Amino acid sequence: MKLSHALIALGLLTATPALGDQPLKVVASFSILGDIVANVGGDRIALTTLVGPDGDAHVFQPSPADAKAVAGADLVIVNGLGFEGWIERLTEASGYKGPVVVASKGITPREMAGEDEGHEEHAGHDDHGDHDHDHGNVDPHAWQDIGNVLAYVDTIAAALEAADPADRDAYAANAAAYKAKLAALDARVKAAIGALPAERRKIITSHDAFGYFAAAYGLTVLAPQGVSTESEASAKGVAQLIRQIKQEKAPAVFLENITDPRLIEQIAKETGARIGGTLYSDALSGATGPASTYIAMFEHNLAALAEALGA
Ligand SMILES: [Zn+2]
Fold it and tell me: Biased-composition ranges for Basic and acidic residues (predicted)?
């Protein structure tokens, strides 16, 4: 009698605070978004990131462990704009019934229609009902403009607050502190790129991941591969790009952490442009690498650009 009373009392004592303190289970689709979500969620969430450091979300193949993480999640957060072509199949297969938050909601997407040969290839695939191409030629890499990420933070904070109202003050405070850091970073990037000689603000990367960056900070970016790594660069496209690099005297070509370096190395060799280092486009580095957070990624990319394009 006394023992059972003691057990009940113990059960109540341990169960009640555990319920209140249980972190919200959040799944983010890829490493860059995961870091942004972690900054807003802080210690109130338990975060799982699907596509990890140096991973390519364009061609990601979810594992059974990913389906399990999604099945157990309270909230799933994706970039949207067609970046995660696999997310619908994954949420369906896992039986997840909760909200899927699109972090890029409300930003102005960069439309690619009619700009290059890749457009025709996409149209061909659409005839076969390939659902990976549902989103046409919208550029998904909106996180390369810090202004867009300020909007991501608001969307993520609103979603966390709705899913976990008890912690809404913490999410709002985290979001405000993070947005202040991002705004300061944005000003640094604008000043540093603005200080480069205008005629040298031209870069070449393998896939077209820096269109938002170029538009926001005043650079020209050329890329032999389209906005997705799914399609290969055509021989004709590469030859055209090599002519363009020579004509415009683009000072540097850049490797990306998620793409095969060989195409860019070939272009460097044929044009005489120097390789200006590695830019982090679609994924962070590992924890000990130079781009382990979104802010560190931007600082790293900015330093590489300033070094290669400076007078
Ligand atoms: Zn990409």
Answer: 119-138
